[in-house]
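Need residues for this backbone.
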């Protein structure tokens, strides 16, 4: 049976997971980040939901493939070669497994994420 699963927009009433990044990843600030997970498949390798972060900057090293759509705010992602990408509402993009660099939230940013991480 095929299922259609709607991804609800998060609200303060929906299940939210708040967290802070490990100190070794931080470059500046100590941004509170929040997840509203909406879906995980049975194998546990495919996830979708909404993510939000307060301003700050940290190192990123992707082991997963991720599709994102920025809903609000402004962020800047810089790859390991120094190429900078400014991300604003309406921007849609992919980050491939193996990507490394930095993520800086300039204005509190909220995005839809869809992640696939191959099983070990």
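Answer:
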């Amino acid at each position: 049976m095929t299922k259609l699963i709607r991804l609800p927009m998060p609200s303060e009433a929906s299940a939210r997971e708040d967290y802070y990044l490990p100190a070794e990843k931080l470059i500046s600030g100590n941004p509170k980040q929040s997840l509203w997970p909406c879906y995980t498949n049975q194998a546990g390798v495919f996830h979708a939901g909404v993510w939000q972060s307060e301003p700050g900057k940290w190192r990123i090293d992707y082991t997963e493939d991720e599709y994102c759509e920025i809903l609000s705010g402004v962020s800047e992602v810089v790859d390991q070669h120094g190429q900078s990408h400014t991300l604003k509402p309406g921007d849609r993009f992919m980050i491939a497994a193996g990507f490394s660099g930095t993520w800086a939230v300039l204005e509190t940013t909220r995005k839809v994420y869809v992640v696939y991480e191959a099983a070990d």
